[in-house]
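Appendix B, record 7
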Amino acid sequence: MSIILNDISVKYENSPEYILRDVNIEINEGEFVCIVGQSGCGKSTLLKLVAGLQKPCHGNIVCNGKIVKTPGSDRVVMFQEHGLYPWLNVFDNVEFGMKMNNVPKEEREEKAMYYLSMVGLDDYKEYYIHQLSGGMRQRVALARALAMESDILLMDEPFSALDKQTSNRLREELQNICLRTGKTVLFVTHSVEEAVYLADRVIVLSSSTGEIDSEIEIELPRPRTVYSSEFVDLRHKILDLVKGEIA
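Structure tokens (predicted):
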């Protein structure tokens, strides 16, 4: 297993309520898992725990056989806000993490160009961040994350701030990239459509109990279309589960 969450529970200090309670998840190597649920159900908290940015009150997380205690180079996080450095151009942003990890100059330059080409931005390598659209900025952030060549990619609603057309295009690109690279992905989203489009498995978190409400295998062939009857049926099934949480 690439990621194992064992009996994870989290609550804030001086709060009687658990955000997450007794959560157990196993994510296989190369699997794409989406987490959905209402706001406040603990989706982002769960991702931060796997990233090593937060510690659970109870339980532990194991990535590639090692207990997660701190952030590590085997896990790269991509948030909704791209976190790019405005004083660096596109190329320098993509190679920044590799530079911090003391990757030799020739190797990091080759990788930076490879991943910029993968996201279709090799012609924009000398542009600065303020010169790019929101979708292009997220592509740069994705290229930077991929360039670290970590085993695990953690994504917290990376496309939610984009317009529908741009987010749909980036979903398709992400799906193709993950099929090519075989990365293990944990992806948090509010969009059930996005989850069904991307995931091998969707996990619905309960906002009332902090536990896992449901796990749904997505066995649709790729590439997927949101208009197929099978896709629509799965989307409605998961939406009903999330709406049940509201009720």
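Remarks on this record: Residues 32 and 185 are 5 Å apart (CA to CA). The beta strands are 3-10, 20-27, 32-36, 58-63, 66-67, 75-78, 152-156, 184-188, 201-205, 212-217.
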